[in-house]
Amino acid sequence: MSDHSETAVLADEPVPPPTEASEIAAEELEEGSSLWRDAWQRLRRNKLALASLFIFLAICLFCVAGPWFSPYNADAQDLFLGAVGPSWAHPFGTDTLGRDLMVRVMEGGRISLLVGLVATMVALLIGVMYGAVAGYLGGKVDSAMMRFVDLLYALPFTIFVILLMVAFGRSLWLIFVAIGAIEWLTTARIVRSGVLGLKKQEFVEAANSLGFSHMRIIVRHLIPNVLGPVIVVATLTVPAVMLLEAFLSFLGLGVQPPDASWGVLINEGQQNMEIFPWMLIFPAFFFALTLFCLNFLGDGLRDALDPKSAKD
């Protein structure tokens, strides 16, 4: 008898039962899966974006796996073969120290892509959590957090990165952290905007009614629903990071020898471009091609995930 009365009391309460919350979550999951399928179909119809994706993957494979199949070591010097033009033995030629330039371009691509991807991941981790917390809490907390973002936008971050590199040395990990720490602001704004529109949805209110913690709601329910714009931002942040790393390399604050990124190779090549133009042409070609592919892919993903932007 007491069980029936207890059930009646629970039924009268406004709190949605677990089955209702589960149904809402299932509907949201099904809708999210449908959105991703539709986005993939739209991306497949964008020939330029799809071609950019395959070219970018081919470049990654070339840089990651290529050195394993080459008979040359990126750091092996042979002064008798210094500054030799492209040939069957050395398709990209050699540099002034006799090092095979094709292997150097592969190794440089590894480092440039690693800097771009890792620094972007650092920026996304900071920006996604910061923006999600600001948007979810709202009110004065949101206002204060976003004013802090506005303040950081006004600072000359390139100078900040240069000062860090001068003060703490040219460590590759410091490059990851320094660049990633200045690229998260746009991500935070985009995620905050998305969360502001989601936090009044039924599935969030149901999770609140069931007593889920704020962090669980943010991580399990809100962030997955703003991943579309975040992915677009990521594809556009990677080339921006690679450009910044190349700029640091031109200033002598990039990767330390004997390692070399594409930025370092381009810097070395432009010093000898009038006499040995191949030293500039090959690293610059791969660097520019990668940037174009990522930008075209980012545009395609934006149009696929937000069809309205493509129509506008």
Description:
By secondary structure, the chain is mainly alpha-helical. It has a single domain (20-311), classed as Orthogonal Bundle (MetI-like fold), CATH 1.10.3720.10. The chain has 14 helices and no strands. It has helices at residues 2-12, 18-45, 47-65, 101-137, 139-153, 157-168, 172-180, 185-198, 202-209, 214-222, 227-250, 262-271, 278-305, 307-311. Helix 3 (47-65) crosses helix 13 and helix 4 (101-137) runs parallel beside helix 7.
Name of the CATH superfamily: MetI-like
Q: How far apart, in Å, are the first and last alpha carbons?
A: 63 Å
Number of domains: 1
| Low-pLDDT segments | 1-22
Strand content: under 5%
CATH architecture: Orthogonal Bundle
Strands, total number: 0
Average pLDDT taken over every residue: 80
Mind telling me the CATH class? Mainly Alpha
Helix-strand topology string: HHHHHHHHHHHHHH
Radius of gyration: 25 Å
Q: Which structural class do the helices and strands define?
A: mainly alpha
